[in-house]
Design a protein that fits this description.
The chain contains eleven helices and 16 strands. With about 350 residues, it is of the alpha/beta class. The chain folds into two domains: about 170 residues, 3-Layer(aba) Sandwich (Rossmann fold), CATH 3.40.50; about 160 residues, Rossmann fold (3-Layer(aba) Sandwich), CATH 3.40.50. The strands form three sheets. The protein has an eight-stranded mixed beta sheet with strand order 3-4-2-1-5-6-7-10, sandwiched between helices. Helix 6 crosses helix 10 and helix 8 packs across helix 11.
């Protein structure tokens, strides 16, 4: 009998939500399917078109047949969740005595609250996020709905991650999914949401009027669109990021104020596209010495870095560094997915022996 895992989440790839967290979850589930698991996804709200399948993973959107999440969960060995569905998933698992796995993408206080509701395994997306939770133990306040529907608050102390088992699974990038041939004649940025700092993207377009800039409208958050610049083109959030974006980009800008990893930089690296990035802990863990860094608040630093990268010999060097980075993480992904499969299989075996 195959091991069965259900992801209870707010969104999944395949219906216009191709953001980092959703893509990371999809890569994880697809790797489990390749290892013989049955993996399904239950969305907490319906999407147009109802149920669908993506790369061997069934997505349940239409629950009009009457089965609720608690009843559906009983058919699975493990439940995995993240972000806004984590708390509900943990409560259902605790009541049904099903192991709960939290996929952890960030260091936000809300995540600490979700982990505090119950954790059988935390899957961290980076070493630095895992270390943050290992060393973090402070008082937090979370807003929660009361019985009358009004918001109340609860106080909790964030437990340290040493209180529960955890593994680190960096976002898995299969290079062939992203590597693209093409003109590579534009300077690109993905997701024009405020926290991603599109102001730098637009400022560089002003300072380099002879260069073409290409922006991808993000899958979440209010997008900051400046259509006054003649050398800036926009494309919608797309499933075919490989053909519509990476084939056209020669340098990627990632000026984010916060990135727990920055998988977009690694996606670009599969095509040898170098990245100028903010020195967030996540991006530095992702790119290491193979990236070019500039302070997110200093447009002059971005201008200097971009001017340097536009020199053909420099661009060639960092293209090679980007490809090396892609290969390194592809090898690491094989090891980390194997380790996670072993841990999850052991969790199922121990549950069945009870």
């Amino acid at each position: 009998m195959a091991n069965r895992i259900l992801a209870f989440v707010h969104a999944y790839v395949g219906h216009g939500r191709e953001a980092g967290a959703e893509t990371t979850l999809a890569n994880l589930l697809e790797s489990l399917v390749r290892n013989g698991w049955e993996a399904d996804v239950l969305l907490n709200k319906a999407v147009p078109g109802g149920n669908y399948s993506v790369n061997g993973v069934n997505v349940i959107s239409d629950t009009s047949g009457g089965k609720t999440f608690p009843k559906i969960a009983d058919d699975y060995d493990i439940i995995i969740s993240h972000l806004e569905c984590s708390e509900q998933a943990a409560i259902v698992c605790r009541r049904s005595k099903i192991p709960i796995v939290h996929l952890v993408h960030n260091t936000f206080w809300q995540t600490e609250g979700y982990l505090a509701t119950g954790t059988d395994l935390a899957v961290y997306n980076t070493n630095w996020v895992a270390e943050h939770h290992s060393n973090n133990q402070k008082n937090n306040v979370m807003s929660v709905p009361s019985k009358n529907g009004k918001l109340g608050t609860i106080s909790f102390t964030a437990r340290q991650s040493k209180d529960w088992p955890y593994v680190v699974l960096h976002p898995q990038i299969i290079p062939s999914d992203y590597e693209a041939e093409g003109p590579h004649d534009s300077i690109g940025m993905v997701n024009l949401y405020e926290n991603k700092n599109p102001a730098i993207f637009y400022e560089m377009a002003r300072r380099f009027p002879d260069q073409q800039f290409l922006g991808v409208i993000g899958g979440y958050g209010k997008q900051e669109i400046d259509d006054s610049l003649p050398n800036v083109e926009f494309i919608a959030n797309t499933v075919d990021i490989q053909g519509e974006f990476y084939s056209r980009v020669k340098i990627l800008l990632v000026p984010s104020h916060y990135e727990s990893f920055g998988r977009v930089a690694l996606e670009a690296a599969a095509s040898g596209i170098p990245c100028i990035a903010s020195p967030t802990q996540g991006l530095m863990e992702c790119l290491g010495h193979r990236g070019v860094y500039a302070d997110a608040t200093d447009p002059d630093a971005w201008e200097v870095s971009l001017k340097e990268l536009l020199i053909p010999s420099t661009l060639k060097y960092y293209r090679r560094m980007a490809l090396n980075c892609s290969r390194m993480w592809a090898d690491r992904a094989v090891e980390e997915t194997h380790d996670l499969n072993v841990v999850l299989t052991d969790m199922v075996d121990r549950r069945r022996m009870r």
